[in-house]
Structure formats: C-alpha cells, structure tokens
Amino acid sequence: MTGSLGSWKTDAHATARAAAAALACVIALAPVPHEARAQQPGAAASAPSPATASRTMPDGQAEARKREALSQDEGIAVPQRSRIASLASAQRVEAQAQAQYGQLLKQASSQGALAPPDYPPLLRLKAIAERLIPHSRRFSDRSDAWRWEVNLLGSKQVNAFVMPGGKIAFYTGIIDRLRLTDDEIAMIMGHEMAHALLEHGREREGQARLAQIATVGASVFSQILGYGDLGGQLASGASQLTLLKFSRGDEAEADLVGMDIAARAGYDPRAAIKLWQKMSSLAGGQGQPPQFLSTHPAHATRIDTIGAALPKVMPLYARALGVAPDALPPYASNWGPPIR
C-alpha cells in the first residue's frame, strides 16, 4: 500500500382477494422511459437550438455548444427506468444511505482505518471523482442536488461502492491488489456511480416489496387449499431468483454507463477490459459461481460486452482529449499487453 497512514485493520377469503389484487399490481409494472433530463445549469426552459444559439453567441461558445449537443446524442443510451422503483421513496433511500455511510466512516475512524483528508491516495480518488461527477447529470436529474463525498478505507477487501446520494468509498485492497491505474479507477468509480445514478438500490427496494407481496399472496392461497405455507416457500424462492436476475442486469448496465461517464471525463474506456482481466487473474483457480445464479456477469461475458460497446464510447474519449479517434494510442496498463 502506498502512503504513510499507519496501521490499517482488516476488516385468511377477504384476505385472499386482497392478496390477489396486490399480486395483480405486479403485472401492471412495465418499464417506462426515463424521465426527461434536467436542463444544464443556466439554461432557460425554452433554450434555443444549437443552430439558433450559434447566431447569438461568439464563435468559440457556439462551437462548444454544438460539440456538447453532439456528445449528448452519442455514447451509451440513457437506460429505461422501471416503475418498480417508484414503490420506494428516493428521498428515503438516499437518507438511509447517508446514515449508513456515516456509520461506516465512524466505525472506520474508530479503528484507525479511515484515510485522513491529505492522504495522497485519497486525493487521487477525489481528483478522479471531480472529473467524473459533472458528467453524471446525463443519467440522473437528482445528482446535481447530491452532496458527493469520497473516502478511502483501509482494508484488504477488493471492493468499492457509491451509495445513493453520491457517497463514494474505496477500499485500499482494490487499489493495491489490482495495481489500478487512474483509468482503471475511473472505470470502477464510473460503474459504482452508475448504480447510484440509475437508482438500482431504490429499484431493489421496490423489488423487495413486490417479493413480499407475492410471498404473502401465495401463502394465503396455499393455506386455503390446505397445503400449509408451501406457496409462500415457492414464491419466496422465485422472488429470490428474480432479484438475482435484476442484479445481474444492473451490473451489466452499470458497466456501460460507467464507461460512458469515464470516457466523457477523459479516461480511456479500454481500461475496463484490462480491469476485468486483472479481476479474473486475481480470482485465479478459485473460479466464479455459475453465471445464472451469480449477482455479477462472468468475467468473460463482461469483457465481451464491454468490448462490443467500445465503438460507442471511444469517440467520447477522443473528443475529451481533443484528438481524432484514429489517433488514439493503444491503452497500456501496468499488467499484460496493450489494448488497441
């Protein structure tokens, strides 16, 4: 580990009818397009088109506006949202996350495992976050009001997360054991930010409420038929598989959105491939759970999906650097061959 922080510590008929009505709600919950994006700070409700704007502002500003409008049409499409998330309050989820984050920091501090404000590896994380955060509003109109925080925790765990509301935490283990470059840190941070921006935590809470409704409904019906709580047990198992399926979908979605955010901030999206190659190497012979029952996609599947999305995000990266896409050099990490 880099730096001089010191010692870190490791780590019943009416009821049946009511239940049927509740279960029917599940069928009505279909995906809907994500809400319209919030306007950029300072933009009027009837903002002029880029063409009109170009006639009323200096050449430099007009060109910048055109580039920004073009970049918003490129990259990874803003994912659709599910009505399931509306079953949970965004404010409550974010408040809970803030409380849990505060408790985590308090515990880490009491164990001497919370990096001080001037610790160089923490400053490195904050610098990366400062570049990524401005590009988050494309995927959430709530993020402008978030009070973003970045903290580093001393632990050998290979882990990092971003809680709803913009609460970022990295563990030293993921940085040190994977020997992460800034681009690779940006891929992880962008991925975890995407979970928060796309409200995956809020959606999971909505799913949990639906699963509870389904379990209660099936239990009531099976008891009426004289089978005890078999229906509840079966419904519970089915709901767990549903939750796992959503979680794998969340992970794949976060991979792509995270790459988009990082590329717009000037970080090489090819680093995401190298990151998961490193992860696979770290797992070694331990392998992974079967993909169908895993909450994460298999490493090989993940790498293939990321590679297929590179043509959508590499132009964003090139534009951030001010160069043509075909002028970009290969991505060279500190492990394995470069990626072209």
Tertiary shape: globular
Sheet with most strands: 3 strands, mixed
Low-confidence stretches: 1-56, 215-224, 226-246
What proportion of the residues is helical, as a percent range? 55-70%
Count of DSSP strands: 5
| SS summary, helix count | 11
Could you tell me the mean pLDDT?
75
- Helix and strand content put the structural class at mainly alpha
Q: What is the H-and-E element order?
A: HEHHEHHEEEHHHHHH
Strand order of the largest sheet: 3-5-4
Strand composition percent = 5-15%
Distance between the termini: 30 Å
- Give me the Rg, rounded: 23 Å
What does this structure look like?
With 340 residues, the chain is mainly alpha-helical. It has eleven helices and five strands, in the order αβααβααβββαααααα. The chain has helices at 14-28, 50-54, 59-73, 90-110, 120-132, 172-177, 182-197, 200-224, 230-264, 271-283, 299-321, and strands at 31-32, 81-82, 149-153, 160-163, 167-171. The strands form two sheets. Strands 3-5-4 form a three-stranded mixed sheet, sandwiched between helices. Strand 4 (160-163) and strand 5 (167-171) form a beta hairpin. The longest helix is centred in the last third of the chain and has 35 residues, at 230-264. The model is unreliable at 1-56, 215-224 and 226-246 (pLDDT under 50).
Question: Can you give me a brief rundown of this structure?
Answer:
The chain contains eleven helices and five strands, in the order αβααβααβββαααααα. The chain is mainly alpha-helical.
Key descriptive features of the protein:
two-stranded antiparallel sheet; 55% helix; globular; mainly alpha; 3-stranded mixed β-sheet; 340 residues; disordered N terminus
